[in-house]
TrEMBL record:
<dbReference type="InterPro" id="IPR013324">
    <property type="entry name" value="RNA_pol_sigma_r3/r4-like"/>
</dbReference>
<dbReference type="Pfam" id="PF08281">
    <property type="entry name" value="Sigma70_r4_2"/>
</dbReference>
<keyword id="KW-0731">Sigma factor</keyword>
<dbReference type="GO" id="GO:0016987">
    <property type="term" value="F:sigma factor activity"/>
</dbReference>
<dbReference type="InterPro" id="IPR014284">
    <property type="entry name" value="RNA_pol_sigma-70_dom"/>
</dbReference>
<dbReference type="InterPro" id="IPR036388">
    <property type="entry name" value="WH-like_DNA-bd_sf"/>
</dbReference>
<dbReference type="GO" id="GO:0006352">
    <property type="term" value="P:DNA-templated transcription initiation"/>
</dbReference>
<dbReference type="InterPro" id="IPR039425">
    <property type="entry name" value="RNA_pol_sigma-70-like"/>
</dbReference>
<dbReference type="InterPro" id="IPR014327">
    <property type="entry name" value="RNA_pol_sigma70_bacteroid"/>
</dbReference>
<keyword id="KW-0805">Transcription regulation</keyword>
<dbReference type="InterPro" id="IPR000838">
    <property type="entry name" value="RNA_pol_sigma70_ECF_CS"/>
</dbReference>
<keyword id="KW-0238">DNA-binding</keyword>
<feature type="domain" description="RNA polymerase sigma-70 region 2">
    <location>
        <begin position="28"/>
        <end position="91"/>
    </location>
</feature>
<dbReference type="InterPro" id="IPR013249">
    <property type="entry name" value="RNA_pol_sigma70_r4_t2"/>
</dbReference>
<dbReference type="Pfam" id="PF04542">
    <property type="entry name" value="Sigma70_r2"/>
</dbReference>
<protein>
    <recommendedName>
        <fullName>RNA polymerase sigma factor</fullName>
    </recommendedName>
</protein>
<dbReference type="GO" id="GO:0003677">
    <property type="term" value="F:DNA binding"/>
</dbReference>
């Protein structure tokens, strides 16, 4: 029950597009969901983004709310799924950064370097989106799923040499894209030949 307003009423009103009911739902559940997500992300900005996305998703799917048996577990499940998606994206981004950054230049934990690190991640993800579908898939299978070249070849039904060529082309493109669009010196970027082994 939401402080004198039962969940059934809130669900029905939200489903009809009642923004006041939705605002009540948002106000009631925002802080607990925020606290829950913050335990995992430890970042106010990222936590807020995940929780806001959860409420957007709930609003977009509001017509299904009357079918929801228990509102609280539903809200936590939607938020948890978005949190997991966010964590997977972070894992992929960090993997890409490890691949395209030299081991000899660790990022320091200063505000300036954190901003540069975020810009670097955003630029690398932008570069990946410009890859052809096949190259992007191979690149992400290697970096996100950490599959070997043999495993990728088997899953896609192509030869290992084709996987190697496509991965090499993808890495080269990402490196050159980041150099061109980020003004990053060639010394900061590496070829990733070790990723091809």
């Amino acid at each position: 029950m939401l402080e004198g307003l039962d969940e059934e009423d809130i669900k029905q009103r939200c489903a009809r597009g009642d923004r006041a009911a939705y605002a009540r739902l948002y106000t009631f559940y925002f802080k607990p969901l925020y606290r829950h997500v913050f335990l995992f992300l430890k970042s106010k900005e990222e936590t807020e983004e995940v929780v806001q996305d959860a409420f957007v998703k709930i609003w977009e799917n509001r017509t299904a709310l009357p079918e929801v048996k228990n509102l609280k577990p539903y809200l936590y499940r939607v938020t948890k799924n978005l949190l997991l998606d966010h964590l997977r994206r972070l894992q992929t981004q960090n993997k890409v950064i490890r691949i395209v950054s030299p081991e000899t230049e660790p990022l320091e934990d200063s505000t300036s370097n954190q901003i540069n690190h975020k810009d670097y991640i955003a630029l690398s993800m932008e570069a990946i989106q410009h890859l052809t579908e096949k190259r992007r898939k191979i690149f992400l299978m290697r970096t996100q799923q950490e599959l070997s070249l043999d495993e990728i070849a088997q899953e896609l039904g192509i030869s290992k040499s084709v996987v190697k060529k496509q991965l090499y082309a993808a890495i080269t493109f990402v490196r050159e894209y980041m150099h061109k669009h980020g003004g990053i010196s060639a010394g900061i970027l590496i070829m990733l030949l070790e990723a091809l082994s």
